[in-house]
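anyone else get weird line breaks when pasting these?? whatever heres mine. first is seq + tokens for prot A
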Amino acid sequence: MIFNTVWAYLYYAFLIVCCGYAILRGARSEYFGAAVMIVGSLSTLAVAKSFGTSWSTVEEGIFAIDIIALVALIYLAIKSDRFWPMWATAFHLLAVTVHTAMMVAPDIPPWAFGTGAVFWAYPMLLALAIGSREHAALKPGRPIESG
């Protein structure tokens, strides 16, 4: 089960904090990025709860969600005038690469595949939060903080 560990609760808390901050402090790019990350995470949770995950073979449903999220992040990176979407896209590409590695070498241990597939969500969320902070700091009429 995907929601029966402390790590799952920590991830969803991190998701809420980072995306909430992006929605409160960001603009269109941050809203779109937060939406991609929230929808992707909830879709992954729904697929994992519906079909289960053993992480011993390629998880087709989760892989499909990750591909759709990657396309959305690539679109955001191209259209946005911010720098953080490039970082988030690169981190997500690494997550997709982990799925691809499992297709090429199916003898990867399940713990390595599962950890590698979910790990890159944390840097993605961090890139969103940092990008939101940078945007908020540079809003007109607000002094730039030093230090």
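and prot B, same format (seq, then tokens)
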Amino acid sequence: MEPKDTTISEAFKGFTNEKCPFLPCHQGVKREFNCLFCYCPLIAYECPGPYKTYTDRNGLTRKDCSGCALPHDGYVQSWNFIQKWLEYPQPWSGKPQTDPPVARPKPAPGAAEAAAAAHRRPKAD
């Protein structure tokens, strides 16, 4: 059992750094601004958030997620959004986002449970 499963408090799901000089870094946030995902854990994965692509100075294609407010819009909402997408992450293809975004494939039966079980296994020394 994870500690988050034993508490009724949802304080771990977010916070707002009122002293951040960049706040608000994303426009369009309608609920409390969640700074927990300042650097989005979905940057390496396909996601429904609006993003553009660019080529960096080393010639690598990168995601520009500056137009996305999904991980910042409300503590509970953004927490649930990130957790949902991390249950079955799909590596980002390196291609621009389609309009509408391509739906992620459904996990094979039992895949989510197997991934969760693998995450819970103690690591060997």
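btw re prot B: The beta strands are 52-55, 61-64. Residues 51 and 62 are 10 Å apart (CA to CA).
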